[in-house]
Amino acid sequence: MHSTLLVELVNGVFIITINRPDKLNALNKDVFADLNKALDEVYTNNQIQSVIITGSGLKAFVAGADISEFGNLSVEQGKALAKAGQDTFFRIENSPKPIVACVNGFALGGGCELAMSCHFRIASINAKFGQPEVNLGLIPGYGGTQRLVQLIGKGRAMELLMSAAMIDATTAFNYGLVNYVVAQEELINKAKEILTVINTKAPLAVAGCITSANAVFNENENGFAVEVNEFGKCFGTEDMKEGTTAFLEKRKASFKGK
Ligand code: COA
Fold first, then answer.
1. Is 65 close to ligand 1, i.e. is its CB under 6 Å away?
2. Is 133 among the residues known to form the active site?
3. Mean pLDDT (whole number) for 113-121
4. What span, in angstroms and rounded, lies between the C-alpha atoms of 98 and 104?
5. pLDDT at 179
6. Which residues lie across from 53 on neighbouring strands?
7. Which of 41, 79, 91, 110 is the most exposed place for a label (fewest CB within 10 A)?
């Protein structure tokens, strides 16, 4: 049980809804603790094939880290806060199961950073994205300076980071920050539709795609070498034998995640 999240598992899709609508789903310590528990479940529960992260209510995905917790932190405490947030978001980014952000409203500060740590994003028409930290005398601390540059390019990211400007869903789509913009009532359905397809694919191969694509942005790794390794690993799986045999036998493959 989570005090700040609603979770639901439907046909292999685990839906995590951040549930503090009166505070526009701002990320406080409790949300981070609950998110980490939910991620434990994502990593260990075989019934969970893929994940949606969204916000409660019609107004906000997540309006940022909870500013009321920033009060009197020291420099060292500020660093620890950023590190803890980054570690949680690395768990999302490195999840072997696909995680999609359904951005249903404001995705500001830590909310934009949370969405960017997911494998891809779908927005409702009313969604708004931004990194308004400089308004508070801060910078993004949960990976925002890195992932915004990765996702939309340095020039656009620099402008957003320094100006605190908010962009709407159409601009986010044009920048490549979100894959689709849909009506709010269609948001979860659109993600389910895509994940239902992905859930039919070989899970270890899907995980290999995630590991390899993430390696592009890890300077300690050679992404091409990671790809060689992940490709090779597929040959040791039952699912690869099943997938290739099924193709040759002109039937649909049935994958087991082994
Ligand atoms: N941290 C803590 N509380 C937050 C919050 C945040 N990041 N964002 C919103 N809230 C709270 C507000 O304080 C308010 O609480 P209250 O009703 O107890 O006063 C409630 O959520 C509703 O927000 P409100 O500002 O009244 O809504 P609005 O429609 O006028 O404005 C926003 C919406 C998103 C523009 C505005 O809430 C905002 O600018 N939020 C902060 C965004 C931000 O700087 N995020 C980065 C943090 S590092």
1. yes
2. yes
3. 98
4. 19
5. 98
6. 16, 101
7. 79
CA–CA distance, 148 with 107 (Å, rounded to integer): 13
> Using a 6 Å cutoff on CB, does residue 113 contact ligand 1?
no
Using CA atoms, how far apart are residues 150 and 141, in angstroms rounded to an integer? 16
Q: What is this structure's pTM? A: 0.98
113 given a catalytic annotation: yes
Q: In what order do the strands lie in the sheet with 106-108?
A: 60-62, 106-108, 128-130, 166-168
Calculate the CA 9 to chain-centre distance.
17
**Residue 32 CA: distances (Å) to CA of 29, 84, 85, 136, 187:** 5, 9, 8, 21, 24
Helix (H, G, I), strand (E, B) or coil at 99: strand
Tell how far the Cα of 3 is from the centroid of ligand 1, in angstroms.
20
Each residue's pLDDT tens digit, 37-78: 999 999 999 999 999 999 999 999 999 999 999 988 999 999
142 in ligand 1 pocket by Cβ < 6 Å?
no
Answer yes or no: CATH 3.90.226.10 is held by domain 5-198.
yes
Q: Whose CA is nearest to atom 10 of ligand 1?
A: 23
